[in-house]
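Researcher: Re-running this chain for the archive, since the previous output was lost when a drive failed. Same request as before.
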Amino acid sequence: MGVLDALKPEKVFEFFFFIFAIPHGSGNTKLISDYVVSIAKRNNLKYIQDEFNNVIIFKDACSGNAASEGSSGENSLNDSNTVILQGHIDMVNEKEDSSDFDFSCEGLRLYIEDGFVKAEGTTLGGDDGIAVAYMLAILESDEIVHPPLECVFTVDEEIGMLGAKAMDKTPLKGKKLLNIDSEEEGHLLVSCAGGATAVLHFPVLRRGAQGERYKITVSGLVGGHSGVEINKGRANADMLLSRVLKALFYADDSMRVITVRGGLKDNAIPVKSEACIVSKKEEEIKGVIEKLSTDILEEYRDADPDISISYEKINDNSDIYPLDEANNLAFIMAFSSLPNGVIKMSQDIEGLVQTSLNLGIMDTFKDEITLSFSVRSSVNAEKVDLLEELDAIVKSVGGTMNVEGEYPAWEYKKDSLLRDIMTSKYEEMFGKPMVVEAIHAGVECGLFVDEIEGLDAVSFGPNIYDIHTPKERLSIESVERTWKFILEVLYDIYHTK
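Model: Regenerated structure tokens:
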């Protein structure tokens, strides 16, 4: 096993070593999927490998007496105690600029430093290779006490949870799901947001208009991830631009919009946006910009202190006409009335954003203006309501909306036996309470909970730092503690009546 052969737990790190000898970036999962299947075959375990490379391996309950209770795939003992263990087998392929590493055909170059496992010049893939190693080590052992198991290895989680979306989940009978895909030891994830991308298409009718052309720029914002930083009070450059355009129109109703652009990703809070307009009243433009700059800087003085709103006259000889009078009014009013940011906070979990949306990308074409929103909610009905509200606004001005990449929420379960077992066992083992939390982003649990009636789910894992970067590192001690925790939890579930 080389560099990892002195680490504990031995079997977990043995599998971890072999996993990372196999290239397995997102979209390149056939070899790693076949390796997982080979472990099932070696241990005479029933398995399913689908056309997408997802794998399910079944193992009957084990009493720990050096002999499994059976491995036919027909769950024995208390069938209601069947546990789904789940993680994904793909990893994010990122490397340092100076690295010559080829993810398509090379195994990672692992090394140990200061109590961490790392990879030379690349991402480590501890997210979620450690889950794969844990599951394979359990599947190969006849000495670990556990209830009936359904070990689920999904693919392409890192590029949209594609494997979990495509997987046929009807073979799964378990009602308890342990997702091992979190990166902070001692934290138990119990809920996540569902989401979708809503793209609004505003029709554009153009006509010539008199006046000078100006470029309006909103810049200098902090930005951030719309799932993590949406509740930090930061401004959205696209939405600030809508305020500017509305104020300019009220100061000069002959002002016409030519183009609007801003943002690069629907799930990122835009840091810059621009509009090109036609106006005959430069003094009005100057006055509006000065007043709004003062007001907005005061409004965001703590969360976003470096906002800049500026204008400049431009020599634009393009043949793109401004919006005609009616179309211009309709777009500005609809644009400025769109919801954005935090819509509702959770009543169950303090500090959790329950429902939000983020205008992330804005662009202009010859015949339409498009606005792309990332919509999130941990309550599926609220997500639907928000999508319907956006649809109503764009339809009111003759536009359309299409929804892409939709995934379900994992709603908070007020009564959870699995959560009770996990938190009780953690405090018993480590002498401190487990942190129970939710996130305003999507995880695979939501896809399983949505399709398996009555499923009780949690997500957890050992400490992994700087995931998805070449600085990624996996704590060796945390891996061992989390391993012991998993075994104790499975033991308790085995003995649950």
